[in-house]
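pinned: reference chain
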Amino acid sequence: MAEIPYRYERDAAIDDVVVEFGSLDDGAETETVVSVAGRLMLRRVQGKIAFGTLQDSTGRIQLFARSASVPDYDAFCALSLGDWIGVRGVVMKTRRGELSVSVDEWVLLGPTHRSFPDKWHGITDVDTRYRQRYVDLWVNQDARRVFVLRSKMLLLIRRFLDDRGFMEVETPTLHHIPGGALAKPFETHHNALDMDLFLRVAPELYLKRLTVAGFEKVFEIARVFRNEGLSTRHNPEFTMLELYEAYADYGDIMELVEQLVEFLAVELLGSTVIEIGGRSLDFATPWRRATMDELIATHIGEVIDLDTPIDELRALAERVHVDVKASYGPGKLILEIYEATVEPKLWDPTFVTDYPTEVSPLSRDHRERPGYTERFEAIVAGRELCNAFSELTDPVEQRRRFEHQAGLRDAGDEEAMVVDEDYLRALEYGMPPTGGLGIGIDRLVMLLAGAESIRDVVLFPTLRPEQ
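pinned: its structure tokens
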């Protein structure tokens, strides 16, 4: 085997060639010579003529090789599917209308040492697709489409927020204490400092410290970690967009969310209307707004609220198959009933508002409804897309709620929060009225790409080790 070169000078991406010369007449040959490179995905040999399909990160093009003009024709015909090669030749179109590069020179850039699936077979085993994503992305064009969409979406989110005066920041991934969300953290140990640390479950409390510091509009696209089960919608590490806007409330954040998602749909898909599982879904603004109590009454035909006797709430929860725990108060029971009966049935984009204070330890009290907070979640196609609220800014009330959470944690609730003294100290310096938001980036990609599992939108999802 010839020595593999250290680099290859290509002068064209395949998609650029396709765009520039796609309208050539059948049988036409140009005077343009290009150097292209990529993987050999298909090959067929017909005596003194061989055809191949070369794919780079932008697209595919046919290779047209004649034995009379191709150096080492037999070796070219013996290439393995999946081999990386560089090709130099004239751009042409065959008599059958296939845009091609006539192979005048070629070089092997990287041999494959494993059998590479061709386009007719691909990878049908789902577990193999996720474990060997480096193969899946070559043979599965839909998988490539999803991750290109994801990359573009992140760029568009940054542009959308930058246009509105938001500043992107970075906050710690290692936390002294877990906080910012009701979730079980991963724990690690710092040897030099001889102390335990936690991978963040949310960047929320650090971002709000920045609001106290005078940054009026901040956001972070953060990798977060939660020690929870795996499902089609849950991966232990995932990506979240969190943002905070001073002088805003949860109504302002609702408008921002619906405008952002509408913008992304139009920019990425060309329309606010998409189809999921044969059903149409429209992201056009404005989205529906409804309180949790209203939705429960509509879907199950029973009116319940915080004044409903707790025995009645427990009985109803058990009827809808909620695993009721002794620690559940009225607010937690209402939330569990809603999640069991209503949330999976909400198809069109809906802002579900007015969550009980009991289940909203960082949200500001509702200005009109005692016992409730100014919090909402956006539900689309039965999936939670985001969580947001008017932020609690009172350090005395925040301490009371932290201490309540700490009590739940002491009683065995591994997802409950602890008292964050430094965050309370920050609030004591004064925090303006603020609206905050957390959007699951992976779930947003799932919606826009039409993916059924979070593993389809995470390049390397968490899996058990191979046996």
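why pinned: The first helix runs from residue 14 to 21. The mean pLDDT is 94.
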